[in-house]
Structures are given as C-alpha cells and as structure tokens.
Amino acid sequence: MTARSRILLRQLHLWLGLGLGGLFALLGATGSSLVFYIEIDKALHPAIEQTVAGNGPDWSSPVWDRALATARSRWDNPHGSWSFEATGEPGAIPARYYPSDHHSHHGDREMVWFSADGTQILRAEPWGGYLMSWLYELHMHLLAGEVGSQIVGWSGFAMLALLVSGIVVWWPRGSWRKAFAFKRNAVALRRLRDLHKLTGVWSMALLFILVGTGALLALPTIKAQLLTAVIVAPDKVPDPQSGESEGQQITVSRALAAAHRAMPDARLASIDVPGAGSEPFRMRVQLPGDPHRRFPSSFIFIDQYSGAVLAVHDVRRGNASTTTAKWIRVLHDGSIAGLSTRILAVILGFVPLGLFVTGFLHWRRRLAARAQSNKTGRFS
C-alpha cells in the first residue's frame, strides 16, 4: 500500500469513526443490556416470579388451554392472536397478544404473563412500554420501526468498513512487537492511540461477527439475498392456510398432540394460536442440532379447525443456506456456548464505546497539538 493510500484510508477510518462511533457505541451498550434481558426483566418485576415445583408445561399439558381461556376472557377479540412461550421452566408463562391475526414484527402487541396454572394474569404491558422492551426497540429499530431497522442494518455494514479500515491502517510495516506495544510512559496522545489500536486489534474478530450478524438480523431481505448469492437460496418457511375460514377452533391440546406426532423428537418452544379466519396453529420447535433454544428454526403448522398437519419446516432437511442462517442469531446474542459466551457478549458490547471515546479524545488532542504547533510557528 502506498503512503497516499494509507493516508486516505486513515482519513476514511477517522470520519467513519466520528460519524458512526456514537451509534456504534449506543448499539453495543444496548446490546449488552439485552443479553440477559429476561433475567433483568424478572428482577425488575417480581410479580412474575413464581416458585413452582417440577418442570414447565410441555406438549401434553392442559395449562395451555386454561391460559388461552383466561386470555380470551380479558381480551375478547375474535381476530386477536396469541403466542405462548414454552420456556421449559416452572413458573410464569410469558405470552404475546396481537390485536390482529398478523404477527408483524413492528405491529402492536401486548406482553402478558400468566400464572403457572394458566388461571391468572400476573402482568400485562404493551411492548415498548417497559424498560427492557424499550431497550430492545432502541437496539433493533432506534425506536423508528422499519426505517430504524434499515438504518441499523446499513450502518452495520458501514461499521464493518470502519473495523476493516482500522486494521488495515494499523497493519505493521515493520516490527510486530512494536505494533502490539503499549507505551505506559509515553505522552497522553500516544497512550490514547495505543489504547485505541490495541482494543480494536484484540476485539476485531469478535466485533466483526457481532456487527455482521446484527446487520443481517436487521435486514432479513438482504440476508436472504447474500445467502442466495454466496451459497444458494434458503428454504422458504411454509405459509399454509386452514381448509376453512370459519368454524369451531380445536383446542390447543389437540393441536399440540397432532404436532407432536409429526415431530416426536422436537422440543416445544412456542405456540402461536390464531384468531378467527384461515390462519393455522404454528408450533415453533427445537430439533437436535438447532443451536437456539428460545428461537429455533423449525415449525409445524396445524389446521385450526380440523387438526390436520398442514406443513412441517424441518431445519435439518434444509440446504446449506438454511443451515447457515440458523447460527446467525446465536452468534449475535452470545448464546452459542451458554453462560460463558453470553458474559463475553456483554463485555464485547461495551468495546465500541471505549473505541469511540479513545478515538475521539485522540482526535481532539491531535487537533489541539496541531493548533499549538501552528501558533508556535507563527510567533517563532
């Protein structure tokens, strides 16, 4: 690389850092807070803490029908739909209520927690109306819906350019030992520079994964296009409809029994109960080899009137792109290897803040030093 190219790249890195550094720090810090957001939310709302012996409700539990009856007695909307989470743990049952039968990622929804037996509502709050959900919206959408998702996603790709340019600018042309050195006794300007570069170098690979997966999660269409271009088009999740558009909806227990027969080795993760219309029941399930416990990638669709299995999406039978896609979320939220990587993700989320602060202070000190040098030159 020529000296001129290096200077231009250094300028690109500087202005990308000044322009995106604050956003990068915000997304990193909010992401860190969300790694344990379920645990934090429980601590902030002791009303949903219930001490119950045994395991949480699963495929054959009657609790789901009781919880649905409790839900519909309060939200008497025939077109409203519900999503119950099967945590596998005893205690309160978390659920989402959608006023319409369309589970839009940006649509209105209410978060509801039922008692362990499904007969009581312990807590109900609109999504975005309490701290952890507000932080989630800030992190994922900048509180701006789809527009915010686009900003987060595309700025993520710009942040990848920021990281790469930083490494290229740092890349040593001489001694590697000197490149990794931190001069404790140097002037403040040099110490800031060393702290900034070494923090970036040591965290580069993990930050690249964190930022890249975040950009893909924010831009699912772009994710699919990239996977198609690099590997093959990912398998589409089926979108079947019930055979009728009206009638007597079957019980949740019956729908679960049909789904379990279709995939007897699956672990239940969530149950989507449709409102009136032709939408089917949808069971999200975790199959062996699927890395995400809370949001696995396999589904079973059940006709809400006849109980027939309409479609099965088995991620194990997916192509290479489908297999690749299932790892994106666990890489981003740090759950890939359990508690240790979640803690690492928390720490890593604050690195962009450190990079922004050290980079900004270094830039300000350089400007001050240059101004002082020019002033001295004029009066010498």
Task: Summarize the structure in short.
The chain is 52% helix and 12% strand.
Descriptive report:
- With 380 residues, the chain is of the alpha+beta class.
- It has 2 domains: 8-35 and 161-223 and 340-379, no CATH class; 46-129 and 236-317, no CATH class.
- The protein is 52% helix and 12% strand.
- The protein is built from 13 helices and 8 strands.
- Strands 4-3-2-1-5-6-7-8 form an 8-stranded antiparallel β-sheet, with helices on one face.
- Helix 5 packs across helix 7 (188-218).
- The longest helix has 32 residues, at 3-34.
- The chain is elongated, with a radius of gyration of 25 Å.
- The two termini are 37 Å apart.
Helix and strand arrangement:
Elements (H helix, E strand, L loop, with lengths): L2 H32 L2 H8 L18 H12 L6 E5 L7 E6 L11 E5 L6 E6 L4 H11 L3 H26 L5 H4 L8 H31 L1 H11 L21 H11 L4 E7 L7 E6 L11 E5 L6 E5 L6 H6 L2 H6 L5 H11 L1 H29 L1
Helix pairs in contact: 1-4, 1-5, 1-12, 1-13, 4-5, 5-7, 7-8, 7-13
What are the main properties of this structure?
single chain; 380 residues; alpha+beta; 2 domains; 8-stranded antiparallel β-sheet; 13 helices; 12% strand; PepSY-ass_TM
Radius of gyration: 25 Å
Q: Order of strands across the biggest sheet?
A: 4-3-2-1-5-6-7-8
Return the average pLDDT rounded to an integer.
Answer: 93
Low-pLDDT windows of residues: none
In N-to-C order, the SSE pattern is HHHEEEEHHHHHHEEEEHHHH
> Roughly what fraction of the amino acids lie in strands?
5-15%
Helix content, binned percent: 40-55%
Number of domains: 2
Separation of termini?
Answer: 37 Å
Q: How many DSSP H or I helices?
A: 13
Q: Could you describe the largest sheet, including whether it forms a barrel?
A: 8 strands, antiparallel
Shape by Cα distribution: elongated
What is the structural class? alpha+beta
User: Count of DSSP E strands?
Assistant: 8
Keywords: Membrane, Transmembrane, Transmembrane helix
Transmembrane segments: 12-38, 151-171, 200-219, 343-363
Protein name: PepSY domain-containing protein
